[in-house]
Amino acid sequence: MTEAAALEYRLFEFIDILRDANIAISADEVLALFSALPHIRILEKNIFRQTLKTCLIKDYTDIPVFEKCFNDFFGSSGDAQAEVVGAFRDMNAREIMLVESGALPHGPAALEKALADFLGSLPGEFILGKSPEELTAAFLGMMSGSGSSGGVGMTPDGRLKKSAQPQQEGPVGDEGVRDTYGRILYAVEAMMRDRLSRKTTGVRIRDREEYLLHKPIYKITQDEIKEMHDLIRRFGQKLKNKISLRKKRVKHGGPDIKRTLRASVRYGGMPFRIFFRDRRIERPRLVVLCDISGSVSQYSRFMLLLTHTLQGLFSKVRSFAFISNMVEITPLFTEMDPERALSSIFSDTNFTYGWGSNYGRCFEQFIHDYSDSLTGKTTVLILGDGRNNYQDPGLRAFITIKERSRNILWLNPDKRHLWNWADSIAYLYGEYCDTMKEVNNFLDLSEFIDKLFIDI
Amino acid sequence: MIFNKIHNNKFLANTVSRSDTIRMFDSIQSAIDGLAEQKYIASEEIATAVFLSLKMEKPILVEGPAGVGKTDLGRSIAAALSMDLIRLQCYEGLDESKALYEWEYAKQLLYTQILKDRLSTVMKHEKTLAQAIDRLSREDDVFFSNKFLLPRPVLRAITSERRSLLLIDEIDKSDSEFEAFLLEVLSDFQVSIPEIGTVRARLKPCVFLTSNSSREMSDALKRRCLHLYINYPNRELEERIVSLKVPECGEKLRADIVEAVHKIRELQLKKEPSISETLDWARALVILGIRDLTHDVAVETLNLILKYEKDIEQAKQNSRSIFLH
Asked: Where are the extended beta strands (E) located within chain B?
């Protein structure tokens, strides 16, 4: 295999990894990359990286993912390959003959290719289930098998069986040869391990993201919160872009007669140019009421973070937090960035009046103090488990909220079967909500926001 | 098609200089140097993307926070390669008549009025109305010819005699319909005018798009462009930028300013100070005759780099750790 072909091969592998990590790369981008490469010196790593980035990555929110993949893929690979090259160089001619006649493909590049082909031919689950040592053995077994007889069973099991005694398949000669062979074996194993970790980089990133997005929010650990915040920012940005693109598409309304006539005066009353009225984009107004008591605080945290990342999409967002006291927290978010705002909310104490959540009292308070935030265009989003500690549900106030707003949606972090259990009166409220939905993970939250924009 | 004649007579005078060779960056280093001559300090990453875009004759989409010098980069490339800069500022409601071309209705109307007599002599042999219309439609191209075509920036860039740089600024401010108009230009460097035909670029213009990412560009547009994300520069680069743009600023003051700005960027603010704010600050301090960025001076002049009251307050709260002197 020539240098160019080897490089090409590696690049395709890298592109696959990026695709694994959910980055969209089309044929156009790949073509652009290959037409760019002749113009640069590939050995200058920084320039090489920038070239890949500029040609392949079109969404800046993907840049951190790209950097990670790049470092994983091109960062460490040098060592294993160098080892193999070294091992080949140290062998004398006779030994090379032996190796060649025995099994291994000649030259490190060809070896890489063979390794990649080998892994490519195996089913994904099979690779994940085996250790690098086992895979190396299987690989060597297959190589020696195809070298001499060619009649190896094509199933992965067959390969493994054959490779159980790779030493017998390999050349049996004097100590020196065996030693060199051992080194090659070692190097091949290193290459295999390296390749396996690289191959899974993209998948790992995607899996990690999906894991976090799907992980039940109450299970998210302190360490993951930071990671989660970054993810929400990235994810929120993507959601925002998606929604704003969708909004732009419904812009044109009917003809604007007044403007068309006015313009036609210039041309002697001939309506040369017809103007159209822009259909007013109705952005929803949003009122978010979040229960921040211990049981659901983590959900509220992410909900608030998400709504404020998406603030630009709404004409107005007002947020309120409560436990047994309703407090408007909108100003906090306008004053500082969401994360700091969040931490100051959760370290504050004026949300409590007495003990535990009191939904009824809070709804009454809301109607009394903040009913100016409700208009016919307002969507009220409530996040809470409806555990009212056996106190007055304040239904009258809740119904007033419903009457004065466009719709009222409730996200409940409790599992559905717990909705009327013990002190929860979720169903009581649910009757007056347009929707009450169970939320478990971040995706549920964001899906909900996304839906707000579909039927407007 | 003789477009150049109609749109700008100035260019006719310029065609003399057509023979001089087109300047190009021949390596990434030469791009860095060429931009430096225009007082633009480009990192290796920026230079690589620019160099590739020029070499591959592919448009480039530049994104990044406001004030990191995206527009300036386009301007500097044009200056470094002595290309004409044709700038198209995007805004909501920008349509093809403002960006591509427009028919001059008033002129067409005026000419029809003036040519009324002439028209009746042409038509006088026609017996029926239908024949008259046939006859008239044979003269169609008189009315829809280059004479009545008003080229807007995009068409101007394509028909330019000299190599030009089309700077489409803040494309995210335009509507997505407008993006669709651009696609033909970006991929094939041509504009289709239904009445005339397709106008192809003789010299492919460099197309440079900037965006503050207030909305996502469509995939179709992104596919046709290379992509460059410019972030805030690192300390060393920013110091070089300050020293280039505000040479009066002493070395120590410069280092202090840049260090302070970098620390302020780490605070979580509504609007982080960008390079242009750093430069404003440096200039202001020089004008005020300040040599040392002491704590008090810094706090008093914070309003030069921070644009929100809350941000200033927050910086003041942390001022002890930001301003060391």
From this structure: 60-63, 84-89, 101-103, 149-151, 164-169, 190-193, 197-200, 206-211, 226-229
A330: enclosing H helix or E strand: helix A330-335
Q: Looking at beta carbons, which residues of chain B come within 8 Å of A259?
A: none
d(CA B295, CA B279): 19
Both structure tokens of A11? 């690049």
Q: Are B67 and B241 in contact (CB under 8 A)?
A: no
Q: Residue B146's closest CA among B161, B156, B135, B136?
A: B156
Nearest CA to CA, how far is A317 from chain B (Å)? 17
**ipTM exceeding 0.95, yes/no:** no
Instruction: List B86's β-bridge partners, or say none.
Output: B166
**What confidence score (pLDDT) does residue B168 get?**
93
User: Is residue B65 left, alpha or beta, with left meaning phi > 0 and alpha meaning psi from -120 to 50?
Assistant: beta
Check if B269 contacts A (Cβ < 8 Å): yes
CA A19 to chain B, closest CA, distance in angstroms equals: 16
Residue B9 has pLDDT above 70, yes or no: no
Give A340's contacts in chain B (Cβ within 8 Å): 268
Name the token pair of A231. 């993810």
- Contact between A401 and A408 under an 8 Å Cβ cutoff? The reply is yes
With CB atoms and an 8 Å threshold, state whether A40 touches B48: yes
Ramachandran area for residue A180 (φ above 0: left; ψ -120 to 50: alpha; else beta): alpha
pLDDT for the residue numbered A129 = 62
The pLDDT of residue A164: 38
Alpha-carbon span A239 to B215, nearest angstrom: 11
Q: What is the C-alpha to C-alpha distance for residues A355 and A325, in angstroms, rounded to an integer?
A: 11
Interface touch A272/B44, C-beta < 8 Å: no
So what's the pLDDT on residue B167?
A: 94
* Sign of the alpha-carbon torsion through A141, A146, A152, A153: positive
Percent of chain A's residues with pLDDT above 90: 2
Alpha-carbon gap, residue A90 to A107, rounded angstroms: 13
CA distance B282 to B276: 10
Q: Give pLDDT, residue B119.
A: 78
Tokens describing residue A387: 């555990």
CB distance B78 to B84 below 8 Å: yes
pLDDT band at B75 (very low <50, low <70, confident <90, very high): very high
